[in-house]
Specification:
Blueprint (H helix, E strand, L loop, with lengths): L1 H13 L1 H26 L10 H16 L3 H4 L1 H8 L14 H12 L2 H14 L2 H26 L2 E2 L5 E2 L2 H11 L5 H36 L3 H16 L2 H30 L4 H13 L7 H17 L5 H6 L7 H8 L1 H20 L30 H9 L5 H32 L3 H20 L3 H42 L7
Antiparallel strand pairs: 1-2
Organism: Roseinatronobacter monicus
Subcellular location: Cell inner membrane; Cell membrane
Protein name: AGCS family alanine or glycine:cation symporter
């Protein structure tokens, strides 16, 4: 199969000129037929600049936070104990450890949004957007707890030791258990959008951005990056979730830790500016700092970035966490609530702080207000575009070699996102078409082919449609969570009582 894929990729390279024309035609067809759907999903709430889908995700996070009594704060310490394996029984069903499940799910969320998305957020919403981004990340921890608990509770366990789980399973089984209608229909709709999202936002967009960054910094042609990425990803995902988990448990700490260390080094070098940076964050969060929309503009950008970054409420992470070795669904819910904390509260905040503290955003010395460019975004020192270039300029202002390290980080972030989203897409695929090695291999080949296509072309309309499909997953998932959260609460109360009585014992 490796030779078949290589031949397919080589044929694509040889046909590149013709393919460019075909790509433009495909993009035009998508733009004509799907723009209405994209506009519908990302439409703003009346009278605001807030996409309704962001409001949908944040509202769900607030409801789950209140319903479970701020579980993200009460269970934080216990979650760390579970990740360390203190309560892991090696005889439990499942395929990966709690730590591996956490890193696999994190690799799906920690991506370009942490580098490029945060830069866009602060370039529009100013430093104050950071405060609201952190708040939204903390609220999103409750959404992850709810969906990942259900993912383990209603997963399928097979005789060979493999498992399949995720929203499509708990929607169908949970609704049937509660005597609710439309569970099967909602599960299929979630699966369709999950497959589409995995091929676009979880694949083509990542490949395109990684290939572009490597090309701009190192001069490597995009088709070579695409071919290399396709091959490496295939070698990893062909081994299933165990292979993916073995890679992510090494890559995620390396890339996340490395990014954090470089960011911390910049903060330490500018330690005298840290107090000023936090005062700017608080000032911008509650007053008009001159950005478009004032304080409301900062709130919108912060909530939007957090919702788009950590995927809390979308349901994707529940698929990875369902593969964990445990007989306690609640324990994996606890582990999963660490994801928005790491993704948004730590990594996204680090990016924002580096941009603020290196003073990339221009401020009028007389008024203290941000200076806006013609596009309504805050002007920056180097006049570069928002996204990766702004973050790269911030890191480069401290270390000359930082842009090269950032290019490596972009490549690794994109790679890790793709291998995890291949698993999400495959599980949704096999839910609809049935389990089996042949059906799994077919999806993996399709997935790797789209990596190459994403690297060498810019199918903007296709990717926009895929992004809309990805966030459409949240519509069905959060509706299901509202109906099924009493089941989670019952599981939570039972778990806490047994933990207190000593029935749930530590193994380390």
């Amino acid at each position: 199969m490796k030779y078949s894929f290589a031949a397919l990729a080589a044929a694509s390279v040889l046909a590149a000129p013709a393919q460019a024309s075909l790509a433009e035609q495909v993009d035009a067809v998508f733009a004509a037929s799907t723009t209405w759907f994209v506009n519908l999903i990302f439409a703003n709430l009346p009278g605001t600049g807030v996409p309704w889908i962001v409001g949908w995700l944040v509202a769900g996070a607030v409801v789950f936070t209140l319903y479970f009594g701020f579980i993200q704060f009460r269970a934080f310490g216990h979650a760390l104990q579970i990740v360390r394996g203190k309560y892991s029984d090696p005889k439990d069903a499942g395929e990966v450890s709690p730590f591996q499940a956490l890193t696999a799910a994190l690799s799906g969320t920690v991506g370009l949004g942490n580098i490029a998305g945060v830069a866009v957020a602060v370039s529009i919403g100013g430093a104050g957007a950071t405060f609201w981004m952190i708040l939204a990340g903390l609220l999103g921890m409750a959404s992850k707890f709810t969906e990942c608990t259900l993912g383990v509770k209603y997963r399928n366990e097979y005789p060979d030791g493999t498992v399949s789980g995720g929203p499509m399973y708990y929607i169908k089984k949970g609704f049937a258990e509660r005597g609710l209608p439309l569970g099967g229909f909602m599960a299929v709709m979630f699966s369709i959008f999950c497959v589409l999202g995995s091929l676009g936002g979880g694949n083509m967009f990542q490949a395109n951005q990684a290939a572009s960054q490597v090309s701009s910094v190192l001069g490597v042609p995009t088709w070579i990056t695409g071919l290399v990425l396709s091959g490496i990803v295939f070698l990893v995902i062909v081994g299933g979730i165990k292979s993916i988990a073995r890679v992510t448990e090494k890559v995620v700490p390396f890339m996340g830790g490395g990014y954090f260390i470089v960011g911390m080094a910049i903060l330490i070098l500018n330690w005298d500016m840290i107090g000023w940076a936090f005062s700017e964050i608080i000032r911008g969060a509650f007053t008009d700092s001159g950005i478009v929309g004032g304080m409301v503009g900062a709130i919108i950008q912060g909530f939007r970035r957090a919702a788009f970054s950590n995927e809390a409420g979308i349901g994707s992470a529940a698929i990875a966490h369902s593969a964990v070795r445990t007989k306690e669904p609640i324990s994996e819910g606890f582990v999963s609530l660490l994801e928005p904390f790491i993704d948004t509260v730590i990594i996204c905040t680090m990016t924002a702080l580096v941009i603020i503290i290196t003073q990339q955003l221009l401020i009028d010395a007389n008024t203290g207000m941000y200076i806006l460019g013609e596009n309504g975004r805050i002007a920056n020192v180097d006049g570069v575009g928002a996204g990766v270039p702004l973050t790269s300029a911030a890191f480069g202002s401290a270390f000359g070699w930082a842009p090269y390290a950032l290019a490596l980080a972009v490549f690794l972030f994109a790679f890790s996102t793709m291998i995890t989203w291949s698993y999400y897409g495959m599980k949704a695929w096999t839910y609809m078409f049935g389990e089996g090695e042949g059906k799994e291999l077919a999806f993996k080949l399709i997935f790797c082919f789209f990596i190459f296509v994403g690297a060498v072309t810019s199918l903007d309309a296709v990717i926009d449609f895929s992004d809309a499909a990805l966030f459409s997953m949240a519509i069905f998932n959060i509706i299901a969570l509202y109906f099924l959260m009493p089941i989670v609460k019952r599981e939570l109360n039972s778990y806490l009582q047994r933990l207190k009585s000593g029935q749930i014992k530590a193994y380390k």
